[in-house]
Amino acid sequence: MPTAPNTRSKGEQFERKIDFATTGLQPFIHRDLTENVSPKNAQTIAEYILAMKTETNLSDNYRSTIIRILSTLSKFHNNKHFSVLTRDDIISYLDSLRKVDVSDPLHKWIGTYNLRRTLFLAFFKWLYYPNDPLRARKTPLVMQTVTILKRKDQPIYKPTDLWTQEDDSLFLKYCPIKRMKCYHMVSRDSSCRPHEILELMIKDIVFKITHDKKQYAEILVNWKTGSRRIPLINSIPYVKDYLDHEHPQPGNPNAPFVCGLGKSLGKSIGVFSLYVIYDRYKEEHFPKLLDNPSVVPEDKQKIKELLKKPWNPYIRRHSALTEKSLNPKMAHVLNQHAGWVQGSTMAQKYTHYFGDESSVSILEAYGIIQKDKQLSDTLKPKQCPNCNEPNKPGSRFCAKCRMVLTYDAYNETVEQKEQKDKQLEELIQKQTRFEQLLQSLIDSGQLKPNINSTIRHIVQ
């Protein structure tokens, strides 16, 4: 048939556009776009992504967000083509994101609403005026008077939502996967956005040693505000433990730092997967510990309290930045550390008092506690006095040279040596008594010498 080549050509062009738009993203992005979105809308989304790539420095994370949200809009209106959507259609979708105060007292939904409204505005400007320069595109009727909502409460997290160092220590104690222990600690050390950590390669982790033999590492993080170097300190033992014992490709410098397994081997896990993992820990793994007889009652009570807090990748960033904002030495470099432009007001959204700062200040003023004594060393690595290797806080032996690190471990080592010496002494005494018995039997004529030699040979 004469139309077959054209049909096949169009089909191939469609597939190529979808592949180009989703390359490097999680497989479910491609699958959702091809299976659940109409071909016409899917092609429009792909063409928008390709246009965005030429107009802006589009990151994989933002590209994934654009595709997922536009796909959701298409499915919400039963794959009605984007070009015929009306302002009422957009408002209808955005209104579906609203939540009542009872279910969302901090009005987190407003952030979601505003993000999607901003994304829709850029998309429909391109859809109606694709040939105009990016900044010259007018607002089409479909997005006119669809305004950003003002958040009623600035912070989206309460002070009690933040994870303390003691919370992290509890998580590390019962987390079964070295990869997640590593991510969890790096997220606190670096205060990075989730995708900034997930985009790192092994070669981006540069280990260093100070003049007095203290170890740390540096990572180079790239973001739209520029590149920044961030030190890793408390997370070093967990990074090494993951790379040495669980990472599938530790010898490949170009392998993702936080690496996938199975079908995702050689690929970094996605931010969405990170949300799923933390959610699974909160809903399944840690609640099961409450019924585990091997978990001490004190830890069970702590787990109950921890389960009341948010478990998601971004609470890690909020907790880390709040902790650093309380350190006077960090105040003047906080914007640079967090990846914000100078003069940014983002610190107001990302830093939250823990709730006891005024109480601590009063206790300091009256001399009840000394200044800085309230700072926790819960997550501080235990440095080996023999080889200077940083070890996990609860380590009893050095992971590198096996030097004892605690008094209990020293006593246990001494006791084990004494026990072995005692067992050896008992064996020697038994051997001596046995030989004396054999000799007495020979002397009395009850045992022939050749039999004695055979027995000695067997015993030896």
Lay out the secondary structure.
Elements: H1 4-22, H2 27-35, H3 39-55, H4 60-76, H5 87-95, H6 109-128, H7 165-174, H8 178-190, H9 194-198, E1 206-209, E2 215-223, E3 226-232, H10 236-245, H11 271-289, H12 297-306, H13 313-325, H14 334-338, H15 347-350, H16 357-365, E4 382-383, E5 390-391, H17 407-443, H18 449-459
Antiparallel strand pairs: 1-2, 2-3, 4-5
Helix pairs in contact: 1-3, 3-4, 8-10, 8-13
Structural commentary:
- By secondary structure, the protein is mostly helical.
- It has 3 domains: 140 residues, no CATH class; 207 residues, Orthogonal Bundle (hpI Integrase, Chain A), CATH 1.10.443; 53 residues.
- The chain contains 18 helices and 5 strands.
- Strands 1-2-3 form a 3-stranded antiparallel β-sheet, with helices on one face.
- β2 and β3 form a beta hairpin.
At a glance:
With 460 residues, this protein is mainly α. The chain has helices spanning 4-22, 27-35, 39-55, 60-76, 87-95, 109-128, 165-174, 178-190, 194-198, 236-245, 271-289, 297-306, 313-325, 334-338, 347-350, 357-365, 407-443, 449-459, and strands at 206-209, 215-223, 226-232, 382-383, 390-391.
